[in-house]
Design brief:
Helix content is about 40%, strand content about 20%. The protein has 27 helices and 24 strands. The longest helix has 29 residues.
Length: about 750
């Protein structure tokens, strides 16, 4: 069973750490896709579920909270091509409510925080939650000086020229405070969206999936003339920095924005308590289909601004507001066929090809089916889902979405199942290369074993290699990778760095004459490739696309080992220990059989941690394994993935050919005067003056290596209240131990 399938209350510490790493990577990727690239890759509901699971794990294991925790982040950084604007007041996201109980909890929490009784009057505003792109407009002396997207909440993109083309955004204001930041949502109406897509299609241009993508893509054009041609609108609903108060209440402040010339939503209303809020929610939900623009919920805010100031903020959300999301929208259609797609890691992902149906204003023709268990009507533990109903080609299926572009199948109508429909047999070979497709213990999917001989894996790995967080080669994106692979120009990453020698011909003849390329674009591509011959080590590791090794794990590995050669040596040395782990796991599986029994995963974990230690493992291999798994955030799962990748002959040869073209830059090292530079530090117990994530980040910034376990290589243990086995082991090994105050004094912050 994968960590993603285990209930939070049953996760071990190692599983929790691995799951937090997985969630951080997935949420960061989703934020970039949604906020920076205007191309969402998961639904709002799935995104919210990931964040809730992350928060639940952090609540159970607070010491495992990562420095890049999604609970501390808002949106994604500004894209290249736009000037940056730092918001005077951060643009935060909102906490979510999904049912009536959540709304009651929101009210109860505010009353408790403010010390108000259950019967004390407490007014709220309720307004539709527009599904668009957040925008901040800064006016000084009544003139618009800049407009900025939310970005990561602190820094956004300067889209002033584009904002001035939106009819609902005034260039000047009368009787406004000297400094006024107006915040709201840029959106597109359904009618305007349909007309735009019709024009795009007629001109042979790309059409948009939904109004939100169309609005976001239109506002974020480098050419303001394109934005001017798009029918964008703007609702104002909040403010940032102001030189004087707009009003005493939220409702009065919104009315003031209306008088200044901004469009405000006419469905915004004042409500007395949660019962009235829910009544307003139902009214807005009933009118949703007739509004003419997309909304995905209702936002509740405490009305009195002095109470908002008292309530203040959490790290990324205000305490005084919450977004009550609408449930996923549903529709029935026929599942025509099931196709298998192969991803970067070889995962075989089933996709439902549907008779097109409109769901939430978007025409849907495909839906994810997750994996073979989901198709068969069971979860990863073998328990029934959908009442045990399987999914077959020809079935009538219920499709749902929540503002996303990746719909899912929710249910099957057995009364309409064709007599000719047969249970779907999930293939055990790769549809792309014919290699065996194997499902390992703990994995919810089958994976192709073909590696680089599998064209689907090779193309997806290459796309990952050139992605933004990896090599980020300008002019070489997914489309170009597919073209070069199809024509045999690029089959592996190293081929990218020999393109000029093979097809440049000095005068760029072969590339410049290809469709979509000219002499200038070809020259720019070769120059962009040359720029990336010098690459930071963390980016290099991430770019390889090794399973379980995300951006954070790659950066941790780079900081710990400092050079590509050192990493190679340790991974090579750890191979016998990894093999012993695999044998121990196989022994448990053989003993337990194929049944997914309760506690079997715990026995496998125990085997990995204890049984292998009695195996015939050379001391050097054991030490290398300990070195790998002791890195904070790097456990057995990541270590095994590294060993698997480096031990594959074809993969390793590909890595060597790539490295021959690169200068791999080690992470920045702090000044030698740092008292902990080069030392291995372990934190344990409860830290009272900083979070565990803060402590780790500060230690690494000073050049220390932060480990998750105590060993003979540990130089220093920082122990807070509640320190247990780690403190005991440190004492046995003679490792220096200090408390939190001692640590702060040591690094000059006491």
């Amino acid at each position: 069973m994968a960590e993603a399938d285990i209930p939070v209350e049953r996760l071990t510490r190692d599983e929790a750490a691995a799951e937090l790493a997985r969630l951080a990577e997935m949420i960061a990727r989703a934020n970039i896709a949604y906020h920076a690239e205007d191309a969402p890759e998961m639904s709002d509901a799935d995104f919210d579920a990931l964040k809730r699971r992350n928060s639940a794990i952090e609540a159970r294991f607070p010491d495992l909270k990562r420095s890049d925790s999604p609970s501390e982040q808002v949106g994604a950084g500004p894209a290249e091509g736009f000037a940056k604007v730092r918001h005077a007041v951060r643009m935060l996201s909102l906490a979510n409510a999904f049912d009536e109980a959540d709304v009651q909890d929101f009210d109860d929490g505010i009353r408790k925080y403010l010390g108000l009784g259950a019967d004390a009057p407490l007014a709220y505003t309720a307004e539709p939650k527009i599904d668009g792109l957040s925008l901040s407009l800064r006016y000084e002396a009544g003139r618009l000086v800049h407009a900025a997207t939310r970005g990561d909440g602190e820094t956004g993109e300067n889209v002033t020229a584009n904002a001035l083309t939106v009819g609902d955004i005034p260039a000047t204001l009368r009787d406004a405070p000297d400094v006024l930041e107006v915040r709201g949502e840029v959106y597109m109406s359904h009618a305007d969206f349909e007309a735009l897509n019709a024009r795009q299609a007629a001109a042979g241009e790309k059409t948009f999936a939904n109004p939100r993508n169309a609005a976001a893509g239109s506002l974020r054009q480098l050419d303001a003339a394109i934005t001017r041609s798009r029918p964008l609108r703007f609702f104002a609903y909040a403010w940032g920095e102001v030189s004087e108060p707009l009003a005493d209440t939220q409702m009065e402040a919104i009315a003031r924005l209306g008088r200044l010339g901004f469009a405000t939503n006419p469905l915004t209303a004042l409500c007395d308590g949660p019962v009235a809020l829910l009544d307003r929610y139902r009214l807005i939900e009933d009118r949703r289909a007739t509004l003419g623009y997309d909304i995905d919920g209702v936002v509740y805010k405490v009305d009195a601004l002095y109470l908002q100031r008292r309530l203040g903020f959490r790290s990324t959300t205000p305490r005084w507001a919450i977004a009550h999301k609408f449930p996923a929208e549903l529709a029935w259609t026929r599942l025509e066929r099931i196709e298998i797609q192969v991803g970067r890691t070889g995962a075989l992902s089933p996709v439902a090809r549907l008779t097109p149906v409109t769901v939430g204003g978007v025409v849907v023709s495909n839906a994810t089916l997750h994996n073979e268990d989901y198709i068969a009507g069971r979860d990863a533990r073998g328990q029934p889902i959908r009442g045990g109903k399987d999914i077959r080609e020809g079935d009538w299926v219920q499709v749902y979405r929540a503002g996303d572009v990746i719909p899912k199948v929710a249910d099957v109508d057995l009364s309409r199942r064709p007599e000719t429909a047969v249970p779907y047999t999930f293939r055990d070979t790769c549809p792309e290369c014919g290699s065996d497709a194997v499902r390992e213990e703990g994995d919810s999917v089958r994976r192709c074993t073909g590696g680089l001989i599998c064209p689907a894996q090779a193309v997806e790995k290459l796309k990952h290699f050139v992605s933004r967080a990896a090599f980020d080669i300008e002019g070489l994106g997914a489309k170009q990778v597919e073209q070069f692979y199809r024509d045999g120009w690029v089959r592996e990453p190293a081929d990218i760095f020999t393109l000029r020698d093979r097809y440049g011909d000095g005068n760029l003849t072969q590339l410049k004459n290809r469709e979509g390329w000219g002499e200038k674009s070809a020259a720019n591509l070769f120059a962009a490739i040359d720029e990336k011959r010098r690459i930071p080590m963390g980016r290099m590791i991430f770019a390889l696309g090794i399973r379980h090794v995300g951006e954070v794990a790659a950066a941790d590995l780079a900081r710990h080992f400092g050079s590509w050669t050192a990493l190679e040596q340790v991974v090579d040395a750890a191979m016998p220990a990894a093999a012993a782990h695999r044998r121990a796991e196989a022994a448990v599986l053989a003993e337990q059989g194929a049944a997914r029994t309760e506690g079997r995963r715990a026995r496998i974990t125990e085997a990995r941690e204890t049984t292998w230690q009695g195996a015939d493992v050379p001391p050097g291999a054991r030490a290398a394994w300990d070195d790998l798994t002791a890195i904070d955030g790097i456990g057995a799962t990541v270590a095994l993935s590294l060993v698997d990748a480096f031990s594959q002959e074809a993969e390793r040869a590909s890595m060597r050919r790539l490295v021959a073209h690169l200068e791999i830059v080690p992470p920045d090292r702090p000044a030698e005067e740092s008292p902990v530079a080069g030392k291995t530090v372990v934190f344990t117990g409860t830290l009272e003056k900083m979070t565990r994530a803060e402590a780790k980040a500060r230690a690494e910034a000073l050049g220390a290596k932060v480990s998750g376990s105590v060993s003979a290589k540990t130089d220093l243990l920082v122990a807070g209240p509640g320190a247990g086995s780690k403190a005991k082991k440190a004492a046995e090994l003679g490792v220096e131990t200090i408390d939190e105050d001692g640590w702060l004094a040591l690094i000059g912050e006491g």
